[in-house]
Design a protein that fits this description.
The complex is a heterodimer of chains A (about 450) and B (about 170).
Chain A: H1 18-23, H2 28-36, H3 39-49, H4 61-66, E1 77-82, H5 91-98, H6 100-114, E2 118-123, H7 128-143, E3 159-164, H8 174-181, E4 205-209, H9 210-222, H10 224-229, E5 231-232, E6 235-236, E7 238-245, E8 251-256, E9 259-260, H11 261-266, E10 280-284, E11 292-294, H12 295-299, E12 308-309, H13 311-315, H14 318-321, E13 329-334, H15 339-353, H16 359-376, H17 382-395, H18 403-427, H19 429-434
Parallel strand pairs in A: 1-2, 1-4, 2-3, 7-13
Antiparallel strand pairs in A: 5-6, 7-8, 9-12, 10-11, 10-13
Helix pairs in contact in A: 2-6, 2-9, 3-6, 5-6, 6-9, 15-16, 15-18, 16-17, 16-18, 17-18
Chain B: H1 14-24, H2 36-47, H3 52-62, H4 66-73, E1 87-92, H5 95-99, H6 102-113, E2 126-131, E3 143-145, E4 150-152, H7 157-169
Parallel strand pairs in B: 1-2
Antiparallel strand pairs in B: 1-3, 3-4
Helix pairs in contact in B: 1-2, 2-3, 3-4, 6-7
The chains are: A alpha/beta (about 450), B alpha+beta (about 170).
């Protein structure tokens, strides 16, 4: 069995309460940090651990913390990004629902490390049940003296609040989140200045994902060196993977980074294979924004070696043959799924969620949705396929925030790897309305797979 | 669409006002505009939707301009700018849920309730709509019902009909 750092006690009855959480060793990290470590020593442990941001970008958390400006007399803030909205990702919901105190404890230790006296957990508004769970957990922690004035006699004060969003994917982007927390529309800010210099209310701010903050707890308990021993290369520690789509056992799994993708999909310890005895056609390995890969490139690198669940291995081969770990939202498509339809669905999502601030994204996402709609519904032209590539390239890299890239990549990668399926939709419009293209050569052993070059 | 000509007077209960005061206390002095999103959720939970009059009241309460409330309420998908059914059934329509039958479930919903997406049933009880990813992709198809945002997972047609029946009897 793989080591579990975050979900070890997930099945213990009552682990959502402070009492049971403490019986299982909870709040040791708060005691250790506040009583025996200086804030800088906590930052140092997190740096040593090699922990990388679990929200999607994978930026080293300790380094992000060390960028925080500390001008005299100016408040600093820690804001937890719990605006989990990336299609395919549902690990933060799981963690907050079942072990809310893991997040609360991580928030206390992290806030102490950064010198924040007030911290916010920004939870997407639709997660009202989780907001109630967190508010209850905060009340419990406050009652037990882990929050409020002079925590555990250390002289450190901290207030922690939960802030609901209003239903907007864009608020998962950290500067849009800060705008939203200030009571405004979620329009991303131009960077620089980065939040570490001017974030919430213009004050130095760190924004971290739920899972990153929860991971600080085992890092402080066992030391950054111990955490670094888990995983592979620069992908240290464990990662929560949200598995969805046509799998025997979809759900949230904690893996040690470096697990072979094949084992993750097919072993009984994890997803248990493809549902209904079907074959795997394609995957989206890290949430809807990352490139889609055919089955063969999911399981193996272009050189035939097994692909691993790690930041490096999943992106091996760049966008020509690779993808990204992203947020760990792993979506599996069986042989009966239509890539064109799914690409249209994702494009509709990005069009709906574009904040409208930058014209390439505001207009381009709409055009891609329209063109994909007509391809999927039997009205497509052969030239539409290149038109989509063209539009996606005009969005990519031309927007204030990464939503533009996130909208462009799924379309570009679908055409890169599944162009024959798109062409079939144009050639056989009636047939494509009644049946699907099927698995074709997408699961053929890698040696035979033709790697298409970007035009 | 935002209808600013709507002029029905609204009252906020004392419980709602108390809740708004508590929310406003979470932010530093002078930053009470931060309370806007949570306050709008509370107002919508009490009134069912956000009329222009209700939003003007929120603006006066937070000492900001009405436009600052309108622009926020119209940006975020959870705020209703027109009256809805008592129960708004929101089905996730994004990729992973569609791989496991969300589109068929929405077709069934339309038949079961007898109204199209966004419309209100004649008895005023139900509205429904497809919404984007609800972050429960492993348990799809999923559906939520405000203002509590009760969550239902692994749905099929039969479970949906049972749920609708239960809500009717409530």
């Amino acid at each position: 069995m793989a080591r579990k750092l975050l979900l070890e006690h997930i099945n213990v009855p009552g682990i959502n309460t402070l009492d049971v959480y403490r019986q299982k060793g909870g709040y040791r990290a708060v005691e250790k940090a506040l009583k025996t470590l200086t804030p800088d020593e906590v930052v140092e442990e997190v740096k040593k651990s090699g922990l990388r941001g679990r929200g999607g970008a994978g930026f080293p958390t300790g380094m992000k913390w060390s960028f925080l400006a500390k001008p005299e007399g100016v408040a600093r803030y820690l804001v937890c990004n719990a605006d989990e909205s990336e299609p395919g990702t549902f690990k933060d919901r799981y963690l907050m629902t079942h072990i809310p105190h893991a997040l609360i404890e991580g928030m206390i230790v992290s806030s102490y490390a950064l010198g924040a006296k007030t911290s916010y957990i920004y939870v997407r508004g639709e997660m009202m049940p989780q907001i109630r769970i967190l508010e209850k957990a905060i009340a419990e922690a406050k009652n037990a003296g882990f929050l409020g004035k002079n925590i555990l006699g250390s002289g450190y004060d901290l207030e922690l609040y939960v802030q609901p969003g209003g239903g907007a994917y864009i608020c998962g982007e950290e500067t849009a989140l800060l705008e939203s927390l200030e009571g405004k529309r979620g329009n991303p800010r131009i960077k620089p200045p980065f939040p570490a210099i001017a974030g919430l209310y213009g004050c130095p701010t760190v924004v971290n994902n739920v899972e990153s903050i929860a991971a600080v707890v085992p890092i402080i308990n066992d030391g950054g060196d111990e955490y670094m021993k888990i995983g592979i290369g620069r992908s240290t520690g464990t990662k929560l993977i949200s598995a969805s789509g046509n799998l025997v056992k979809p759900g949230v799994y904690e893996i040690e980074l470096g697990l072979p993708v094949e084992e993750f999909i097919y072993s009984d310890e994890y997803c248990g294979g493809i549902a209904n005895g079907k074959r795997l056609k394609a995957t989206v390995a890290g949430g809807s924004s990352v490139p889609v890969l055919p089955a063969n490139l999911t399981l193996k690198l272009a050189n035939g070696e097994p692909r691993l669940m790690s930041y490096e291995s999943l992106s091996e081969g760049g966008f020509a043959t690779g993808t990204m770990l992203g947020s760990g939202g792993f979506i599996a498509f069986d042989e009966d799924q239509c890539i064109v339809r799914n690409t249209w669905n994702f494009s509709r999502f990005y069009h709906h969620e574009s904040c409208g601030q930058c014209s390439p994204c505001r207009e381009g996402t709409g055009w891609m949705e329209k063109v994909l709609h007509r391809l999927e519904h039997g009205h497509g032209k052969m030239s539409d396929i290149d038109l989509l590539v063209d539009v996606s390239k005009k969005i990519e890299g031309n927007t204030i925030c990464p939503l533009g890239d996130a909208a462009a990549w799924p379309v570009a990668s679908a055409i890169r790897h599944f162009r024959d399926e798109f062409e079939w939709h144009v050639r056989e419009p009636l047939k494509s309305l009644q049946t699907n293209y099927g698995i074709a050569g997408y699961a053929e052993p890698i040696a035979k797979a033709e790697v298409k070059q970007e035009n | 669409m935002l209808k600013v000509e709507e002029q029905q007077p609204v009252e906020f209960s004392s419980a709602l006002m108390a809740k708004c005061d508590e929310i406003s206390s979470r932010y530093p002095e002078g930053k009470q505009k931060s309370a806007l999103l949570p306050v709008l959720h509370e107002v919508q939970a009490e009134l069912g939707w956000l009329s222009a009059t209700a939003m003007d009241k929120v603006a006066a309460y937070l000492k900001i301009e009405p436009i600052e409330v309108y622009e926020v309420a119209s940006f975020y998908s959870m705020y209703f700018l027109e009256p809805k059914g008592k129960y708004v059934l929101e089905v996730c329509r994004t990729g992973p849920c569609c791989l496991v039958g969300a589109e068929k479930l929405m077709e069934h919903m339309e038949k079961s309730l007898g109204v199209k997406e966004g419309e209100v049933t004649a008895d005023g009880l139900f509205s429904w709509r497809g919404v984007e990813c609800l972050a429960a992709c492993g348990y799809g198809p999923v559906l939520q019902i405000g203002p509590e945002y009760t969550f239902y997972e692994n749905l099929d047609n039969q479970k949906l009909d049972t749920l609708i029946e239960e809500l009717r009897k409530k």
